[in-house]
C-alpha cells in the first residue's frame, strides 16, 4: 500500500485541477486521478476553442439549483475577479464579448496550461489515464482502488463533472459514488442544449436555417423544478430546430411538454430602437407591403415567412384588417411552440441536477454525513447560465473545497 495523501481528487478537469492547485499550494499532498488520455478536453473545446472562463457579473442569480442560495458562500469567497487576477498573472490576453463574458484572445489551451502550472507549483501528482475501480472508507481513511493498487487519503474529492459529451469521456461516476454512500442525487438532465421540433408551425421556418437574430425568449413556469426565465439573446434557426444563446438559455428551464415563447421583436424593442406599437400603427406604413414593414426590424426572409403564415404576403398594409394586424402582431411577439425534445447529452454544454446540495456544506463542499468526502463542479446540483458561469462555479467550488482540505 502506498503513502497516505491529504487529498485524492477524482477528475482532473476544471474544478478538480483548480482545487488541486490551490490545496497543493497550501501545503497539502494532493493526488489527481483521471481516466482520460488527454486532460481538460471540455476546457479545450469550450467557448469555441477560446474558453469563456468567467463572467464579470457572475452572481447567485445566474445559477439554477433546487437550492439557489447554495452558491452564495462559495461565490462570495472566490468571485470572478479573483480568477481574472490569476489569468492576468499568467499574462493571458482576454476580452469581454457580451454581457460580461470573458474569453481568451488566443486559445483555451492557455487556461489548461495555467491550471497545470498552478498544480506544478503545489507539487500535485497528476496521474492519467487511470481507471478507478472502487472507493471505500475504512476507519475514516478513504481508499481508492486502481489497476496499480490502493491509494489512501484523509479527503476524497469527487470532481468528474457532468454527463454532456460522452465522446470525450463524460461519466456519471461522481453520481454513482454519491449513491454508493447514500446521498440523494437530483435527476440529471441535459441543459444549455439546442431544442428539436416536429411541430407544423415550425415547417416554414426550417427553410430559414442559418438565420440568427436577437429575440426575447421565455420558458418554464413558476411550478417547474427551476422556475421560469426570460432572456434577451440571439436565436439561431437550424435545420434541426432552434439553437443559439437564447434557446440554450431557455432549454435549462424548459420541461418536456411545455411551450417556449419567442418575441421576435422583444430584444430590439428592449434596446429602445423602436416601438412595436408604432410599427403596427404608423400611418406612414399604409402603402408599404406587410413583409417590408416587418423587414424594417427583422431579416426579410423571416418577415416574408411570417407574412406568408398569415396570408398577408404581398398585401399593402392599408388593405390589412385590424383583426389581421392584431393576429400578425400576436404571432410575432408571442410565437409559442412546443419543442419535441432536446438534442441530448451529445450536444448539451452542461448538466442540470446532480448531487443534492442538501447533502453538502455550502462553505466547504464536504458531505454532511461523510467526513472528508467532497463533491465539486458540475456533478453538484448547480447549473450556470450560458456565459462563463459554469466555469466560475468550477473555480469557486474547487476553491471552497481546497480551503477545507
Ligand atoms: C462544448 C462545451 C462548451 C462549453 N463552454 C463553456 C464555456 O465557454 N464557459 C463555461 O463556463 N462553461 C462551458 N462549458 C461547461 C464547462 O465545460 C463545465 O461546466 C466544466 O468543465 C465543469 O467542470 P468540472 O471540473 O466539474 O468537469 P470537467 O471539466 O468535465 O472535468 C471532469 C473530469 O473528470 C474526468 N472523469 C470523468 N469520469 C471519470 C471517471 N470515471 N474516472 C476518472 N476521471 C473521470 C474527465 O476525464 C474530466 O477530466 C462547456 C461545455 C461544453 C460541453
Automatic annotation (TrEMBL):
Domain of life, per the record? Bacteria
The record's section on Gene3D superfamilies has: FAD/NAD(P)-binding domain, HI0933 insert domain-like, Translation factors
Record domain RsdA/BaiN/AoA(So)-like insert: where: 189-350
Q: Which InterPro entries match?
A: BaiN-like, BaiN-like_dom_sf, FAD/NAD-bd_sf, RsdA/BaiN/AoA(So)-like_dom, RsdA/BaiN/AoA(So)_Rossmann
Q: Tell me which cofactor or cofactors this protein depends on.
A: FAD
What sequence ranges are listed for the domain RsdA/BaiN/AoA(So)-like Rossmann fold-like? 6-403
Note whether Repeat occurs among the keywords.
no
UniProt keyword annotation of Flavoprotein present: yes
Sorted keywords for this record are: FAD, Flavoprotein
Which SUPFAM superfamilies does the UniProt record give? FAD/NAD(P)-binding domain (SSF51905), HI0933 insert domain-like (SSF160996)
Which PANTHER family does the UniProt record give? OS12G0638800 PROTEIN (PTHR42887:SF2)
- Protein name (record): Flavoprotein, HI0933 family
